[in-house]
Amino acid sequence: MDNIFTATFFVSIFASTIRLATPILLTALGEIYTQRSGILNLGLEGTMTMSAMAGFVCAYFSKNLFIGFLGGIIVGMICSAFMAFLSITVRANQVIAGTALTILGIGFSSFIYRIIFGIQKLPPQVESLTKFDIPLLSSIPYIGTIFFQHNLIVYLAYILAVFSWIVLEKTTFGLNVKAVGEHPRAADSKGINVSKVRYTAVIIGGAFAGLSGAFMSIAYMNSFSDTMIAGRGFIAVAVVVFARWNPLRAMVGSLLFGIASALQIRFQAIGVPIPNQFLLMLPYLVTIIALITVSKKAEFPSAYTKPYSRMER
Predict the structure, then answer these.
(1) How far, in Å, CA of 196 to CA of 71, rounded?
(2) Residues in contact with 191: Cβ distance below 8 Å, sequence separation at least 6, in sequence order
(3) With pLDDT > 70 as the criterion, what percentage of the chain qualifies?
(4) Which pTM value belongs to this model?
(5) How many domains does the chain have?
(6) What gap in Å lies between CA 305 and CA 289, rounded to an integer?
């Protein structure tokens, strides 16, 4: 217990927070595009699992981490394109379609992985993505360790948060995405192709989720397990609501989950006398509390989860 309140402890916690928040942030950023267009994708858990498997397999056989990440992104886009087809073209119930996609993704990824690698006592691994220390900044005491000693995907996630805010708030594409999510018929009357914009937004969300899944298997765990996503897809959906569909606020929500995860891992490591089950609950409990406190103020897009057809009035 004497090891808790030390500089080393807090530096370790905050550095882990930045890293553990990365997959949640990436997935939440993609889901912001999706939900802004009026589509709810609850299949993120399955998409991330499929992408984690695909990214690992591609990296393992190619011996190239870049190909692994690319494979994860492509699979994420394919999974989300299927979700877009069900939601936009077939006009299926989005909650049911997303839930089914999650179940399918988790089961199918496990099936494919076992076909390729079989059942082994020691699971195959890939070489981890190396840490990139930013020159000069990484040598700053404490601050450098927390913020500037991570792998490239961690830095990219936070850059993408700013980039996504610019895209959604300052570009024509972002305006179109919000228009089809708020009033698709009015957008259609102005010449905006509602289906095309929604398909694009959902597939962009899939690309982000694919990168997040590949991050988990290649840059975080260095191996694959069908349980490795552990609810992060659903937490990302909660973070989107917490952030009120703002990419910059999504960073705050992701960091809340990150610090809760970092604390439970660290507490277990130093032997804090709290039952292990309660520590494992901590990240999800924090997410639920944060969501409850802000969800009442959240204003969902007007056409949220509502299929659109030109033929209906």
Answers:
(1) 24
(2) none
(3) 96
(4) 0.92
(5) 1
(6) 24
